[in-house]
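Please, structure for the following, as tokens.
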Amino acid sequence: MNRYNRILLKLSGESLMGNDSYGINTEMLNSYARQIKEIIEAGIEVGIVIGGGNIFRGLSGVSKGFDRVKGDQMGMLATIINSLALQSAIESLGGKAKVFTATKMEPVGELYAKWKALDSLKNGFATIIAGGTGNPFFTTDTASALRAVEIEADVLLKGTRVDGVYTADPEKDKTATKYESITFHEAYTKKLKIMDLTAFTMCDENNLPIVVFDMNTPGNLKKVVFGENIGTLVKK
């Protein structure tokens, strides 16, 4: 039995850099594509939202003198570049993928609508929803929570380079311990930075669980989807 049948996978743009300092690392991109194709072939419906921090981050642009709205729009375009790269990688492996964009951008991608995304999911496409929410001042964390709720996903899977949620940053604090599971309320009161507050609140209010896991280890995505106890589960 599958633990989850329809998922929304949130990938950070930074994770696509692999060991590089900028841009898209082909090895990392192909690893993600193989993992996604594998679970789709196992019958899982997969929606995907990718960040754009490996190319441009709106807030960092503000510190360099960009207008916040223009900076965020540039960040949204960065997410579309990443989404097209992932689509291409999945298709090169023989899989099926579609890119939907939050704002009208044909022929780059189809304009997002819930019914289009559901049809794509049911027909076995990796359904990549790009361009954030289409609005400035919202992160791709918030976009992933919004899209997960819209497509009625069973879970939001946050793929990162760490293997779960810790009491402190494990890369900085060697004494940090990992949570196997934690409630939204506990995570909020402990001020654990899992997602931004808007995204976190949306998941909490819509009873949408989050699993934070290490996406950079091949095979982990399949393990999470099929119910193996890896990563950290955040729930009501």
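The longest strand covers residues 6-11. Helices lie at 26-41, 58-63, 68-92, 114-122, 140-150, 184-189, 197-205, 220-225.
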